[in-house]
Amino acid sequence: MFAWRLLLRECKTGDVLTLLVALVLSVATVTGIGLFVDRLQQSFEVQSANLLGADRSVRRDDPIPTEWINQAQSEGLETAQTASFSSMVFSDQGLQLAQLRAVSSNYPLRGEFLVDQQMFGTGVSTKDAPASGEIWLSSRLASLLGAGISDKVRVGEVSLLVTKFLVRDPGSATSAFAIAPRAVMNQEDLAATQIIIPGARVRYAFLYAGEVENLERFDNSLRPMLGEGERIRTPIERGERVGNTVNRAESFLLLAGTLAVVMSGVAMALASSRYVKRHLTQFAVMKTMGATPKKLSSLMAIQITAIVLFGIIIGSGLGLLVQALIADLLSSLMNAELPSPSWSKLWLGAATAIISTLAFCAPLLARLVSVPPLTVLQPAAALPMRSTSLLLFGLVGMYGLMIIYAGGWQLPSILMVGLAVVTALVFVVGWGMFALSRKLSKQSTTGWQVGLAALHRRLVSNLFQLLVFTLIIMLSLILIGVQSNLVRDWQAQVPENTPNHYLFNAQATQVEDIKQYTQENGLATSDWFPMVRGRVIKINGEDVEALYPNRRDEPEIAERELNLTWADQIGEGSALLEGDFSAQGISIEQQAAIEANVGIGDELTISIGGLEYTLPITSIRSVDWQSMQPNFYLILPKTVLSNYQANYVSSVFLDQTNAADFYRFMSNYPTVSMLNIGELLKQVQDIIAQLANALKIVLSFILGAGALVLVASVRSTLDERLQEGALLRTLGATKQIVRQALLVEFGALGLFAGVIGAAGAEMALVGLQHFVFEMEIAFHLSLWLIGPIAGWGIVTIIGVFASRAVLKVPPIRLLRSI
């Protein structure tokens, strides 16, 4: 009972509130970020599933076994099927090769169709598939056929009614590069077409969706039944561009949450230090009254347990409120509701509270038990805090927390190396700077002299305060640097006027006419590249089949026919890494070379039109496959390919103002295939915009938490500053001198912290860019400006504001409390 009475009394006096507030801040920050990240991840998965048309899909060359469907449905999953194939579509006006998708009536399981009653319209959403007897044509296909709404077109032996123009098929991402214009029909009409006969090239897709537990259970039972080349596709795998974007965003959110853990640990350590200092005399008095170490330990254990429980309950509630507010704000920006959070994530906040208490509070509070009774009469005789050992203990606890939160060691290790380097810099550079301030204080007057002298006079406490300021600034700069890099990199993926249509199968005689039209109408196009089909059959004289008896191990350049080209110079989106591009040999893409384990001087034998050509590799190129420019794995000399009939490929950017005219022009060249990837690019752009908004909100939240930690840091030395200010004013110093001294002291601490924090952030960003985000390493000159300027300004403002009691409280009142 005594422990509870003492705890209640300390709550009234405010002594325990500082520690409780720090604990609540830690739990609320980690809980809020953890739940918000979980909701964002769920949202990304939902959006990716919408593009896939389901939660999972399996594509194969044979019809879907009934056993798969029955077993999936027995697991409580919804199922759907599609069959994709190429066929001629006939109308009264003409005929056109099209890419058709026959879908079951309940398709899509996730996402929606986008359709319109007007050709080339923007579209409206619908979850309904075409009814039996109906067909939806893309605007491109409809214009080529001269077909409109209520017209009939023939597919094989069946006539179907055109009821809508297809703008987007939610599953089209799985066949984004089908060259022919698209159409969607009902699967019930497939048999009547009489197109699906033995030997016909049909790509079947089995789609299913449901609860995560049911999906995982069915995935495990389905994998043994998959044939060669078949695999289960998940939403995140459905596209490299969006997949990489989402993965990087999740890495950023994980980084933000991990940094929140670090900030929470710092806040706990500061609050614990302040609590211990304010209770030394109290515990010494209890010892003089006969309290044994065992009794004091029991008393402390009860108090710590109560504080942790209250911190978890209040912090979790506050974290739920914070994540809900952030999610509501983001939902308004995204025009979509975020999924509900997973309540299982609440354990992160509780774990943070417990481990933070054990790592940062318990070692400090436990030392109160050994406080000497002499402290009652001689406060200076208080036990030494052994700061180095406590710091190491806290760092180990922080590292463990980060590993638990991040679910791995790579990200925490990079951050810990950065923190260790910065800690060393702080103590080396800080000690030197404070020693210099002592010399400068002798040459200064009034407030400048007092402020500079204070830096060295409180050497140990100022060094630890400098470390806290530096860590918070460094962590904030890391987030700012990563966030700006990611957004810039995402925006560079899909810049304005990115080509959104590919033109294939153009003959040399047609290229000039199309070039002339695009130039006259101001359409942005890429270069035209000739294409000849060929296959790599030997590497350094050895047959590919002998080198790779298991076909799954074959490098991509050898597993299928490739589009080969020639070029006089490296095209846009490529860069020469090694060798001579103009030499009479093969120029190979970098990743293809790594996969095939070949380099400059190695030879490839390529079969083209029944003839074999053996050529050395003379250059290696990097290729930006996301540039939407035509790119190739292999570029051969013109002398080899010019003897073959080549088809030409290019890309062009079209918008709503010129697409219809260009489509009508291209109807004069029915043999030229055109692929519209505009909707796919728009989906990518929408996801990028949503992710950028999410990152800004998370960044703002973390920076706000960092500001609170800075306030806690200043308040941890407030008692000492109050006593010093009282003595100065008693000795005749004016408020202006005391205020100037505070400005000088906090300004110097902020400036030093900003410089060292910028250096630490730059070092940490190098590791994060290379190992975590897999981005090109870039240096951030802006951080070297932001760090010192923001450090000086923010620390000065927060420091002076938090220490304003030094100026307001009468000296006599402070001296009586000493």
Automatic annotation (TrEMBL):
<feature type="transmembrane region" description="Helical">
    <location>
        <begin position="390"/>
        <end position="408"/>
    </location>
</feature>
<feature type="transmembrane region" description="Helical">
    <location>
        <begin position="694"/>
        <end position="714"/>
    </location>
</feature>
<feature type="transmembrane region" description="Helical">
    <location>
        <begin position="741"/>
        <end position="761"/>
    </location>
</feature>
<keyword id="KW-1133">Transmembrane helix</keyword>
<feature type="transmembrane region" description="Helical">
    <location>
        <begin position="781"/>
        <end position="807"/>
    </location>
</feature>
<feature type="transmembrane region" description="Helical">
    <location>
        <begin position="296"/>
        <end position="326"/>
    </location>
</feature>
<dbReference type="Pfam" id="PF02687">
    <property type="entry name" value="FtsX"/>
</dbReference>
<feature type="transmembrane region" description="Helical">
    <location>
        <begin position="463"/>
        <end position="482"/>
    </location>
</feature>
<keyword id="KW-0472">Membrane</keyword>
<feature type="transmembrane region" description="Helical">
    <location>
        <begin position="252"/>
        <end position="276"/>
    </location>
</feature>
<keyword id="KW-0812">Transmembrane</keyword>
<dbReference type="InterPro" id="IPR038766">
    <property type="entry name" value="Membrane_comp_ABC_pdt"/>
</dbReference>
<protein>
    <submittedName>
        <fullName>Putative ABC transport system permease protein</fullName>
    </submittedName>
</protein>
<dbReference type="GO" id="GO:0005886">
    <property type="term" value="C:plasma membrane"/>
</dbReference>
<feature type="domain" description="ABC3 transporter permease C-terminal">
    <location>
        <begin position="256"/>
        <end position="372"/>
    </location>
</feature>
<feature type="transmembrane region" description="Helical">
    <location>
        <begin position="346"/>
        <end position="369"/>
    </location>
</feature>
<feature type="domain" description="ABC3 transporter permease C-terminal">
    <location>
        <begin position="697"/>
        <end position="811"/>
    </location>
</feature>
<feature type="transmembrane region" description="Helical">
    <location>
        <begin position="414"/>
        <end position="436"/>
    </location>
</feature>
<dbReference type="InterPro" id="IPR003838">
    <property type="entry name" value="ABC3_permease_C"/>
</dbReference>
<keyword id="KW-1003">Cell membrane</keyword>
